[in-house]
Request: fold
Amino acid sequence: MELKQETVKQIRGLIIFTAVLIVCLWKFDVVISAFQFVLNIVYPFLLGGAIAFALSVPMNFVERKLFTERKISEKYKRKYARGISLMLVIAGVTGILAMIIFGLLPQLAGTFANLGKSIQEFIPQVQGWADHWFHNNKEIMNVVNNLEFDWNKIMEAAAGFLKNGAGSVLETTINTAKNIIGAVGTFFIAFVFAVYILLQKEKLGRQAKKVLFAFVRKGRAEAVLEVLALTYKTFSGFLTGQCVEALILGAMFVITMTLFRLPYALLTGIVIAFTALVPVFGAFIGCAVGAFLIFMVSPFKALIFIVLFLVLQQIEGNLIYPHVVGNSVGLPSIWVLAAVSVGGSLMGIVGMLIFIPLMSVVYALFREVVYIKLRQKNIYPQDIL
Reply:
């Protein structure tokens, strides 16, 4: 029996794939080492691509509002629009980070300076409460009565550690300095690569399409472009909505905590804004940090803060989040929880941020395939109840 050329290609591809899979399983440690080596080489460029994607969302907005929607000559747009928009976005991001850092560092310094005093003042209150509620339990009372917090002892212990472990500390400091220099160099390469991508994204896009259509069949190439367009739309919508939602939530906490005269309003608002970037669980981490700091000052105010957090969380979850983020992700709540759990277990916080839009893309593609299969069987979704 004579086989068709297409069948021969499929058999050949299956044989090659099987051989590669066997070799990978046989030399698994070598494959992992090679993968890590390649990943270390391409990591700056992967990071640059991520930075370019994050900056492209506000850059497109600025370019559209300042140049596309205004009567400006095409020559001026082509020559200056992209560069000016990119410079404005970089300046804006740098300014926001500088404001956060210079607003956060004094708060942190004051917090740590007063933390020891707050703990020292708080220990007698704990001992008084324990004496009132557990005066009949000798074991608890012994533990509570032995509580002490002495900054002098802590400083003496730290000085002894530095004195006895100076060699290891010096070695650790040198290694840390090397890591910092390496990280700065990696970030610089990634940032330059990201700027190049943003300035030449149309040209790079055309080149990538030419390569895709040259080596992939036209139907499959068009399908790949559709998937990439859906992925970009989903990720950009999720990134924009999540950032705006986090800023609104942080501002709400700063304003309400200031009105209720709760301590650490700015610090808590900034922490909650940052942690709220992580869906589902993030804001609760910020709540725990804020509640601990306020608890050291006043347990009653910490209770007020927790109640305030629950109220604002309900307002944010039911009113703000649906309007700000909307259906940009288009993922049911149960799959959002699953995506956060799986992403967090695999890649930590970064995984939580990535897996929600990634799961949304997979969900949208799978739903489209299901509808196609139903139409092929002359079954329509509205007929299935």
Notes: Residues 74-133 form the longest helix (60 residues). The CA atoms of residues 66 and 72 lie 9 Å apart. Confidence is low (pLDDT under 50) at residues 165-170. The radius of gyration is 28 Å.
